[in-house]
Automatic annotation (TrEMBL):
PROSITE patterns: HTH_ARSR_2. The gene is sdpR_1. This is Transcriptional repressor SdpR. GO terms for molecular function: DNA binding; DNA-binding transcription factor activity. It comes from the Bacteria. CDD domains: HTH_ARSR. It comes from Blastopirellula retiformator. Pfam families: HTH_20 (PF12840). SMART domains: HTH_ARSR. The lineage of its organism: Bacteria, Pseudomonadati, Planctomycetota, Planctomycetia, Pirellulales.
Length: 108
């Protein structure tokens, strides 16, 4: 049985739809899986997923605007990481957006 959440803390329908829309792409789900291993640059992600840098950048921008990933700068490089506010635990593949939860363990 899950614990009840304060309704004031549950995102509205628009916020929930934005999270789901941002995740409604196979490449973005693969990016999230990759970022669970640690922060990565656009170039790292493009190389890992065999994407053009422009395509990887586009997908990261969508995830960033949905606040699913956050960034930090190290010198001239920008690194992306999963927003820890949505992780159910540090090592988990489970995400909790308040309006919905999902698990990426079985993602191929």
């Amino acid at each position: 049985m899950s614990s009840a959440q304060d309704p004031a803390e549950i995102p509205g329908a628009d916020a929930c739809a934005n999270y789901l829309k941002a995740l409604a792409d196979p490449h973005r789900l693969q990016i999230i899986r990759a970022l669970q291993q640690g922060a990565m640059s656009v170039s790292d992600i493009a190389l890992l997923l065999e994407l053009e840098i422009a395509n990887a950048s586009h997908h990261l921008r969508v995830l960033y605007h949905a606040q699913i990933v956050k960034t930090h700068k190290d010198g001239k490089f920008v690194y992306y990481e999963v927003n820890p506010a949505f992780l159910k635990s540090k090592a988990a593949s489970s995400f909790d957006f308040g309006c919905c939860q999902f698990d990426l363990r079985n993602l191929e």
